Amino acid sequence: MRKIVLSVSFVFVFLAFSYAQKKQVTVEAVYGGEFSIERLDALRSMKNGKQYTILNRGENGVTTIDKFNYATQKKVESIVSSADLPEINTFSSYQFSDDESQVLLATELEPIFRHSTLGIFYVFNLKTKKLTKVSDTKIQEPKLAPDGTKVAYVAKNNLYLFDLTSGDTKQFTTDGEKNKIINGVTDWVYEEEFAFVRAFDWNTDGTKIAFLRFDETDVPEFSMDVFGTDLYPTQETFKYPKAGEANAKVSLHMYDVKAGSTASVDLNDAYYIPRIKWMNNSNYLSVQTLNRHQNDLKLYSVDAKSNTASILLEEKDKSYIDITDNLTFLEDDSFIWTSEKDGYNHIYLHDQDGNLITQITKGSWEVTQYYGYDQNEDKVYYQSTENGSINRGVYSIESSGANKKALVADEGTNAADFSADFTYFIHTYSNSKTPPVYMLHKALSGKKVKEIKNNNALLEKLKGYELSEKEFSTININGNELNMFMVKPKDFDASKKYPLLMYQYSGPGSQSVSNSWLDARDFWHQQLASQGYVVACVDGRGTGFKGADFKKSTYLNLVKYETEDQIAAGKELSKLPYIDENRTGIWGWSFGGHMATNCILKGNDVFETSIAVAPVTTWRFYDTIYTERFLRTPEENPAGYDENSPLNYPEMLKGDYLLVHGSGDDNVHVQNSMRMIEALVQANKQFDWAIYPDKNHGIYGGNTRVHLFNKMTNFLGQHLLQPKK
Per residue in 345-370, pLDDT tens? Predict the structure, then answer.
């Protein structure tokens, strides 16, 4: 007996020693790339459907576009290599001509705003191996003509046409001017809220270019100090329409390449033009328009010969309509379209004239991605929440709505990238325990062919770290079953009391509780769990993927119900026997920063600590398109703007509050935090704050993220980790 006892003791000591040897996650490790995942970078199917290309950035600095065979997964060749191009050190993205005989290479890219860039571009002819520079100066959004003979692009707010054969450049708009007129690319607010930059496109035979023109003359100008490193700071000025203010006047124009002439298209005083897309028939362009309230969407068909427009379909909503990229024209220009009109996002088939043929998908679940339609096999491919709102599965269905098939739908996040002919798809799978795995599947059957790439090396590395499970559940708050995750300390003891830190974003249509692989924020939460926190996240009303009514329930009262849900969730979770109800914190970024601020004020009997990073503090300071989508204008709905603005009740602060912002934030301006600071000072409330010079909404660059998250960690350690005396 004694020998057995000694053996058990030895095992216990050994396990304890092994556990003690586990490393804890640190901010330095998170933002030093310790937990980076392997990806398939910039994968694109070739038109033959049998091969695909990826961008490969080699360790020696050489960049290549490599072609792979779907069936064998073997590399066929390197189509382009920077090692063979003395004019180019490296390139960061590429774009094929329609016939795949030429490739447009982007170099020396520099960011403008969130999506927009300037760069030097080259066209490489894959047959002749000739490399041609498009412009000696940096340009925006170049696009090859369908026949590969020309490149259209934007420079200094004007449109140009570069002839690859002659080397001649033709400027075909002349009124472009900074902070006044923009041709061919979007203004700041379109880029940020409608998520596109290139506002021109070639028709299918290369005879016409449709483009948008933005007249920003009446849009108020925003100025932002740039401190830099010189003796004197500079100032960045750009047009930024805040809620209720004038937007750019946007118009549609048609350029005839052969004639060299431009005509305008009358769209009946359309307020917003969030999408243009050519049909397969080169004479017809589709145009989506919205009214200012964004609850009346029209899809126009524009005849490029007569430059006249007719309505294909119109959708109206009592609140708002989201813009997507799911419009797909079939060979005969009948089209597939997604809509929330039955209460959930689903796929619809319309004929050439816009008449509804059939609703393809139905059910109390959401289509989250439309992948395409294989007309040969009559299969529509899509991703949805049919396997649970925190999961994603990939499915096929016939255009009639019959014979639906789950191709890959294991619990977790399944995504697909289909070959051009829909023979194969590359399946990306992850869940909260499994970093992305890339696999090749047959599209019709869904059968797995082989694994392409995994992150087993990362999983092996993570065995050396002290990590806690991300536990998913639901919680009943204000009559709704809300999705929740919780991360507990690895040595969790239900008889002990732990501080609770809640994380949320809560913005309309967003999702923070997702059964997918961990991001940098999740790894920081792991660090906090190892220090003794319980971290939880609840997706409240207004978040996405649970139907239109749930998402749009916050309409005209943005942040009101979201705040009520987080306060109620904090109160409910504080009742758990292992939570110290006197140590409850909340944090968030951007919309989540607004929420974290509101919660410590309106929920001052629940939350003792709050961190708000880059918060909106009044929607009067935010842009027109986003804000008015959910609140209408301040003139129409003043209570919706002011009753939930923390600027109006700073005296309610009782707990410990950290406010953080980047001074170079072009999105949520530092003005928001400066006004919050002043309101708290005048209310004689003590708080902590930090401004990161010249950092944008992401607050990153150099050592910035390490400094920020260490500051947040230390703040929580000081105010939340230890029991209050």
Answer: 999 999 999 999 999 999 999 999 99
What is the residue-wise DSSP string for 207-239? SEEEEEEEE-TTSPEEEEEE--SSSS-EEEEEE
- In 10 A of CB 322, how many CB atoms? 19
Task: Give buried/exposed letters for 6-35 (b at 16+ CB in 10 A, else e).
Answer: eeeeeeeeeeeeeeeeeeebbbebbbeebb
CA 167 to CA 196: how far, in whole Å? 29
Q: Which pLDDT value is given to residue 42?
A: 67
The catalytic position among 187, 623, 665, 666 is: 665
Report how far residue 694's alpha carbon sits from residue 698's, in angstroms, rounded to the nearest whole number: 11
3-state secondary structure 458-520: HHHHHCCECCCCEEEEEEEECCEEEEEEEECCCCCCCCCCEEEEEECCCCCCCCCCCCCCCCH
Identify the CA nearest to 258 among candidates 207, 200, 209.
207
**How many whole angstroms from its chain centre is CA 30?**
21
User: Out of 525, 594, 697, 719, which one is annotated catalytic?
Assistant: 697
Mean pLDDT within 300-322: 97
Angle (CA) 631-632-638 rounded to 5° is 75
Query: How many Cβ atoms are within 10 Å of 445's Cβ, its own excluded?
Result: 10
Q: Judge whether 697 counts as a catalytic residue.
A: yes
Banded model confidence at residue 21, pLDDT cuts 50, 70, 90: confident
Residue the block writes with tokens 């003139």: 635
Torsion sign across C-alpha atoms 123, 129, 132, 138: positive
Q: Which residues contact 402 (CB under 8 A, 6 or more apart)?
A: none
Q: In what order do the strands lie in the sheet with 393-397?
A: 367-374, 379-384, 393-397, 405-408
Q: How far apart are CA 335 and CA 357, in angstroms?
A: 10
Whether the Cβ atoms of residue 691 and residue 663 lie closer than 8 Å to each other: yes
What is the torsional sign of CA 685, 688, 693, 698?
Answer: negative
Is residue 6 scored above 60 in pLDDT? no
Per the annotation, the verdict on 665 as an active-site residue is yes
Q: Would you give the distance in Å from CA 604 to the centre of its chain? A: 32
| pLDDT over 90 at 18, yes or no | no
Does an H or E element contain 454, and which?
A: none
Cα four-point dihedral sign 101, 107, 112, 113: positive
Residue 421 CB: number of other CB atoms within 10 A? 16
Residue 635 is which amino acid?
A: E
Q: How many CB atoms lie within 10 A of CB 42?
A: 14
pLDDT tops 60 at residue 441: yes
Given the residues 590, 610, 663, 673, select the one marked as catalytic: 590
Tell me the percentage of the chain whose pLDDT exceeds 90.
94
**Which has the closest alpha carbon to 464: 98, 20, 8?**
20
Q: What is the pLDDT of residues 555-572, one digit of tens each?
A: 999 999 999 999 999 999
Q: What is the mean pLDDT of the chain?
A: 95
- Is 253 catalytic? The answer is no
Measured CA to CA in angstroms, residue 715 lies from 503, 528, 585, 657, 721 at distances of 15, 12, 11, 9, 9
